[in-house]
């Protein structure tokens, strides 16, 4: 008599979480179906059943990380008090992303870089930037929001690769200068 099939509705999610862990530890080049299966403690066939190829698994991992990071960004944006010092708030958020949420931030940048060579990853990897720009646009004009997004990404990337622990002061002055310049342009009629 054959043994009954075990139902495992969370298997796909566990495989994706395992893929994110593999990427966090060793980078996207270390991700294989076998590595994800071992980490998720599932048979190898489960990974190929749920993900036809490695790009599909990478894309699922990227979506999971992007969704988590976008949710974190929405929570941060929702917690801003009207009239708060945006340079201070952004600097504190950068420190938080580079320390408390370092692993998630590193994985996001790893996958963001992987999208350079894998077009299937590009839509998911741009979700973070689109959300940053959307959030920043509620505080500054669209052009400045786009520039602030690029600056924020660059500052976070630098913080993640720096050998020193990031502190608010590292980020606050450059952010304030962009925000003050934006206010001056706004007062001058935009140019």
From TrEMBL:
Keywords: DNA-binding
All copies of domain HTH tetR-type, residue ranges: 9-69
Keyword Cell membrane: no
DNA-binding annotation, residue ranges on this chain: 32-51
Keyword flag 4Fe-4S: no
Pfam families for the chain: TetR_C_31 (PF17940)
InterPro entries, per database record: Homeodomain-like_sf, HTH_TetR, Tet_transcr_reg_TetR-rel_C_sf, TetR_C_31
GO molecular function, one term: DNA binding
Name the record gives this protein: Transcriptional regulator, TetR family
Species: Actinokineospora terrae
